[in-house]
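Consider the tokenized backbone below.
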């Protein structure tokens, strides 16, 4: 698991930097509202660590649930850091990203991409 997390972190660094660059550009250059800029950056960020795992028919559904939950957590933390704690918007995004990266890694590892046993089909004619 440690090797997989390190791999996730190494691959994710470039994605995170790109996401942060998009967030910063949208926020500082185009004046996009910080929560919208974060959502756009988050949605553009792709996680490739589990790319080799085929999964089952519900893997894309589980991945979508984890990613949407991660987005919700990211936006919630960002709002709390900026509005309640009065943290700078760029620093707040960095804090939120750290929490969400760890959370989504473990959620994807434990639920999205773990082996899910298939349910045996019961023949109704027996």
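A designed sequence for it:
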């Amino acid at each position: 698991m440690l090797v997989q997390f390190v791999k996730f972190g190494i691959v994710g660094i470039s994605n995170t930097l790109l996401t942060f660059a998009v967030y910063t550009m949208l926020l500082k250059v185009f004046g996009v509202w910080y929560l919208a800029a974060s959502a756009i950056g988050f949605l553009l960020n792709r996680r490739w660590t589990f790319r080799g795992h085929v999964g089952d028919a519900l893997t894309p559904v589980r991945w979508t649930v984890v990613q949407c939950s991660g987005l919700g957590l990211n936006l919630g933390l960002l709002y709390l850091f900026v509005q309640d704690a009065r943290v700078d918007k760029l620093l707040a995004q960095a804090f939120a990203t750290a929490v969400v990266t760890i959370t989504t890694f473990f959620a994807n590892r434990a639920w999205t991409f773990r082996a899910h046993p298939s349910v045996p089909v019961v023949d109704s004619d027996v």
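The chain has a mean pLDDT of 83.
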